[in-house]
Design brief:
The chain is mainly alpha-helical and 329 residues long. It has 18 helices and no strands. The chain is elongated, with a radius of gyration of 24 Å.
């Protein structure tokens, strides 16, 4: 993500840290950069590279601490400010991230990846118009930035701009012909466009592409299962929905859909397990409480059913008039 320094720096711990960093040994690199900073405070880029190492380790709070210690002595470092903006975004602090990117842009012109994160900050702020504006700028600067195209597609989709979303995801596939997320999202677009056959084909293609992945996504499985269920093919939906839950056991949406499928096929014990788990994972999900109420009604537990239907009505009333961004299902 970030380049290595152009000039040599004499601190031996720093040099050893760079060697470890280049080798991808980020934990040992971070320790060596901390040692270098202790030995020669503020005289090298040790804290900057410690932050870069910690970003690779997904330790964003630690990276923020390193950067906030580094920046006062290197206030003209656009690199450090852009990285801090990224770190703040990853900690779900979009307003602070945007303010930091504004500071950085006053020093160094932003790259496409920087504008991509600005767009994602606006997504976190539920401001899709500005998100689209900055993501469009990102792909204008770098038309090969696959991630920027993907997030632009998601932003278009959130605003029901389906034609533009489809073009964005197709661009991702032009850049990477077996991109699972883009193909899965094309399925969502086909589904929204009332073309279930094309959607099912897209979900199945995404599933096939990720068979060899060490970290397959549950999304195409749950999307396929949900659509099959909507098409009246509930028994066929069970296998992909069970796979989705196996891949993401703490995903309430997957549990809800599998529980609903079990309920429709008369497997009340399995439905109870899944729907009770879904409401435990996401207590504010009105649909999960409604399906659980239906289960209790079929199981002849009227008091429990009434409690769930009452909870459903309460959540629906609370949500009336408010909108939320669509998820990546």
């Amino acid at each position: 993500m970030y380049g290595l320094p152009c000039s040599a720096q004499s601190n031996s711990a720093f040099d050893r840290g760079l060697t470890e960093f280049r080798a991808g040994n980020y934990s040992s690199a971070a320790s060596l950069f901390a040692e270098a900073e202790t030995a020669s405070p503020s005289t090298t880029d040790a804290l900057l590279y410690r932050a870069k190492s910690l970003v690779h380790l997904q330790d964003f709070a630690g990276a923020e601490r390193a950067l906030r210690s580094y920046i006062p002595a290197h206030h003209d470092s656009g690199d450090a400010l852009y990285m801090l903006g990224f770190v703040l975004n990853r900690q779900n602090r979009p307003a602070e991230s945007l303010a930091t990117y504004t500071q950085a842009a006053a020093i160094t012109r932003p790259a496409a990846d920087d504008l991509k994160i600005v767009g994602l900050d606006y997504v976190l702020l539920d401001d899709y118009n500005d998100a689209i504006k900055w993501l469009e700028k990102a792909v204008t600067i770098d038309s090969t930035n696959k991630d920027a195209w993907y997030y632009l597609g998601r932003a278009y989709y959130a605003r029901s701009r389906l034609t533009e979303a489809r073009k964005a995801f197709q661009t991702v596939l032009d850049l990477d012909p077996r991109d699972v997320k883009a193909e899965n999202n094309l399925g969502l677009i086909f589904e929204s466009s009332s073309d279930p056959g094309a959607a099912i084909d897209a979900y199945r293609k995404a599933i096939a592409w990720q068979q060899a992945s060490p970290h397959p996504s549950e999304q195409p499985y749950v999307n396929l299962g949900n659509l099959l269920m909507e098409q009246g093919e509930t028994k066929e939906a069970l296998t992909p929905l069970e796979k989705a839950v196996a891949l993401a056991p703490d995903n309430a949406f997957c549990r809800l859909k599998l529980g609903t499928a079990y309920l429709r096929t008369g497997n009340l014990d399995a439905a109870r397990r899944e729907l009770e788990r879904a409401t435990s994972l996401d207590p504010e999900n009105a649909a999960a409480h409604y399906q659980l109420g239906r289960l209790y009604k079929q199981a002849h537990e009227p008091d429990r059913a009434k409690a769930e239907f009452d909870r459903t009505a309460e959540l629906q009333a609370r949500a009336a008039g408010s909108g939320s961004a669509p998820s990546d299902h």
